[in-house]
Specification:
two-stranded antiparallel ribbon, about 30% helix, 3 helices, alpha+beta
Length: about 110
Amino acid sequence: MLFTPTEATVGETRLSTFPKADSAIQVFTFNISCDAYRQMRRFIETWIDRKTILGAYGAETFYKSTRDYTVVYSCHAFVLHALKSAGLKVRPAMGLWNGLAMREIGLRAKKDH
């Protein structure tokens, strides 16, 4: 766990197709409006320093984050905050670790597999 603020990176994956249900990725879907999607993108963009590309791997590009990670604000909390910015009724406090975050997302989503 991160007990002091730590510099963070943001990985952005460009998907040319939606992941298949039999892939190793757990897929959740949400129906949101175009406005909700734009709100979420605005939230995500506040975290990305697009001037500082740290590297790339496959379809993923890594950028320096404009914010730090902490013990209470990790990638899981970031995802829940992004979903909340789109109007989904998720609780970002459930982002303390992966299991809680996945449970919270699963409660609010249609699970594809």
